[in-house]
UniProtKB/TrEMBL annotation:
This is Helix-turn-helix domain-containing protein. It comes from the Bacteria. SMART domains: HTH_ARSR. It comes from Streptomyces luteolus. InterPro entries: ArsR-like_HTH, HTH_ArsR_DNA-bd_dom, HTH_MetalResp_TranReg, WH-like_DNA-bd_sf, WH_DNA-bd_sf. Pfam families: HTH_5 (PF01022). Residues 9-102 form the HTH arsR-type domain.
């Protein structure tokens, strides 16, 4: 039997402003937040970014460790979702401000979704 390590997600009261802002200080990570802002859970394979897969994995881990996203593993597939309600409860208005400014300034606009869903 193979035991898979489950990712640790900080509780909302463990999230810090510094860690969340640091996680959102990179254009790729802001782009990922923009893609996930629709509230849908996405398989990692659906995400498209102008970086190597290992670098994309790093960016997703930074977002998860800061509490910006939640990662769920199902077999060999990984899925990610924006933790909007937790972020809004902990830091009211922050995520909307970041996403609005990112949209206005085209920050993260090179991140998107693949044309068709794939295994996460």
């Amino acid at each position: 039997m193979v035991v898979m390590k489950q990712a640790r997600h900080p509780e909302p009261d463990e999230m810090t402003l510094i860690e969340v802002m640091a996680a959102l200080s990179d254009p790729i990570r802001v782009g990922l937040a923009r893609v996930l802002a629709d509230g849908r859970e996405r398989g990692w394979g659906e995400l498209r970014a102008p970086v190597a897969k290992s670098t994309l994995s790093h960016h997703l881990r930074v977002l998860r460790d800061a509490g910006v996203t939640r990662t769920r593993q199902e077999g060999t597939r990984c899925f990610v979702k924006l933790r909007r309600s937790d972020l809004d409860a902990r830091f009211p208005g922050l995520l909307n401000a970041v996403l609005t400014a990112a949209h206005s300034d085209d920050v993260g606009d090179r991140v998107g979704l693949t044309d068709k869903p794939s295994a996460g």
